[in-house]
Structure formats: structure tokens, C-alpha cells
Amino acid sequence: MKMTFRWYGEKNDSIPLKYIKQIPGCSGLMGFIDKAAGALWSEQEIKEYVDHVHAAGLEVEVIESVNVHEDIKLGLPSREEYIDNYIKTIENLAKYGVKVIVYNFMPVFDWLRTDLAREIPEDGSNSLYYDEAELAGMTPVDIVESTAKNSKGFTLPGWEPERLKDLERVLALYKGVAPDDLRANYKYFLEKIVPTCEKCGVRMAVHPDDPAWPVFGLPRIAHTQDDFDKIVSFADSPANALCLCTGSLGSNPENDIHGAIRHFGEKNRIACVHVRNVKYLGHRKFREAAHLSSDGSLDMYEIMKAIYETTPETYIRPDHGRMIWDEKGRPGYGLYDRALGIAYLNGLWEALDKGQKR
Ligand SMILES: [Mn+2]
């Protein structure tokens, strides 16, 4: 297992690389380059980024932000150009040591929350929060505007202004696109890119829908174990893998998270894991919790045990954290609570490892 940390780059993150290097047991980043969906990532910009991270003593074997253009998801004729760019980007990233690319196939929206800083009454910290009842009174434009307004000047992943300026137009294009249409477009994309991944030694890691159910009537096809069984069948290769995000998949109490890790880990279809706890507050209502099992609704010991026993060579990172100790930063991505999360997850791992070898 390699423990990593998400970092948004010198211009977009409040946390210096030096601080990340000082987190015990953190070997590197799940990295990010700020590029529009569909753009080609040049060798030069990748080299500069990777060299910069290496200079801080950290690895960057996982990249999270190669976003899939909507035309690919919609299956428009213009997808060919974007798929060509994607293939060249995979080749360019592989040249600089990248082994895993995290992406998603969610139409229009990446993750959604109705509050980016809901106070946790038990301790006065705050965290990202979702209540379907609050969403019911909002349009897609409302949620984009309120998220942008509340993100404290940071651009949130999936909410980049350039992606959302033509929100209404793109939403209209999805009218009449059924889940099976989206699956067909997804399969087409994977069939085109997986041979390049295999040649370059790169694994694609699809992130689950967050929250783990459809929103605004858009088709969503990645939020149950059954959905992922279909996805892994689209291209029968270890390069077609999952980023198993426990907090995203776990937002729906019906999903068995450690069961899903075992199921896909045993098939060698997990390329990396986002480990995060979530606390259920009611029907389709939850908040992000501290990593500790007893602070949320997920059993983090069983999650780490399933990883340890079925996919021990994977990359892990704490996904999000609460805002604690009056830290000012990007919602969900402060230093303190994520560093606490790493310390705890590493503790679980050491106990599993030593218990196994006793
Ligand atoms: Mn995640």
C-alpha cells in the first residue's frame, strides 16, 4: 500500500508540499493539473509538475484530474478528437511515471453537496453535508452558484467555471439519454483507450457517483456493485479498474463497502482507494465525518482489512476531511483532519500487518 494525499498545485492549494512530506507514512500525491476536460496534456507541463513534486521528496504515481469531455459521454461525433487527446495524455503521463489515472463518467456534475461547511454539533467543527430535501428546492444552476459562492475562492473539482458556463445547453443534451445509452458511450471510450493503457502500464480508475444515486434526473451508472460489475465487463483488463471511494459509494447505506472492496479486489480491479467515513443522518441525508469508525457510519477497520487482504499493493488516500482547529482552506481539503486520517489509517494497517504475521 502506498499512502498518498490530494494536492491541487501551488496556485490552487493552501498546503505547501513540505507539510505533506511531513505527514508520517505519506509517500506521495494523487496529483492534479488544472486542465479543461478534453484538453491534451503536453509532455512539458507534465514534466514540470512531476519534477516539482519530486523535488519535494514526494512521488506522483496517481493523477486525478484527466476529466472526460461531455461529448464523449454523450457519444457525439466530436468525441473522436477528445478521445485522441485522452490517448496522447495517457502516453505522456506514463512517460513521467504515472501508473493510475482517476476519472469519472458522471454527466455534467461531479460530486454534489447542499452545504460545504455544515457545523457538526458534537464538536463545533464543520464538514461537507448533503440533504436531498434541500436539493429538492434547487435547480442545477442554483446548486452550481451556491457551491461556487461557498468555496472560499478555491475552484472545486468538477465545478470549474469553464466547464459550467454552458450548463443549460449541456443539460438539454442529456434529455433522452438513458443509462444504457451512457453505458454504450462509456464502453466505446474504454475500448478505444484500454489498449494504450495496457501498452503504457497505466490503469484507469473510475470514481463512483457522489452521492451514490441519480440527481436532477441525469443518468448515472456508477453507484452500486452491480453498476461496477457492468463497467469492468466493458473492457476485460486490469487496466479497466476502480477508484473505490468509500465515502461516495458509502453515501448509500444499501452499499456494502468492504464487501465491494473484496469483490473487486479479488478480481484485481481496484487501482486505488479513497478512504473516508460518512455519517448517515436520515434518508439521503449525510455528512462527512472524521475517519474514526465510531465518528461515522462505516466500519473503517473492515474497510482496511478488505484492502489488506485483497488488494494490498494499492494506492490509498484520505478522501476529504472536516475543517478543524480553525483552519482556513478548500472545503473538504484542509491539512489537519486529512493528516489525522492518514495517521489513523496507517495505524489500522500496521495492526493488520503485524497481526497477520504473528
Ligand atoms: Mn473520492
Automatic annotation (TrEMBL):
Signal peptide: none
GO process terms (BP): D-glucuronate catabolic process
Cofactor(s) named in the record: Fe(2+); Mn(2+)
Family as reported in the entry's similarity comment: Belongs to the mannonate dehydratase family.
Catalytic activity field: D-mannonate = 2-dehydro-3-deoxy-D-gluconate + H2O
InterPro entries documented for this protein: Man_deHydtase, Xyl_isomerase-like_sf
Tree of life domain: Bacteria
Organism: Cloacibacillus evryensis
Annotated EC: 4.2.1.8
Keyword set, alphabetical order: Iron, Lyase, Manganese
Annotated metabolic or biological route of this protein: Carbohydrate metabolism; pentose and glucuronate interconversion
Gene3D superfamilies in the cross-refs: Divalent-metal-dependent TIM barrel enzymes (3.20.20.150)
Cited Pfam families: UxuA
Protein's name according to its UniProt entry: Mannonate dehydratase
Molecular-function GO terms, alphabetical: ferrous iron binding; manganese ion binding; mannonate dehydratase activity
Gene name of this polypeptide: uxuA
Function: Catalyzes the dehydration of D-mannonate.
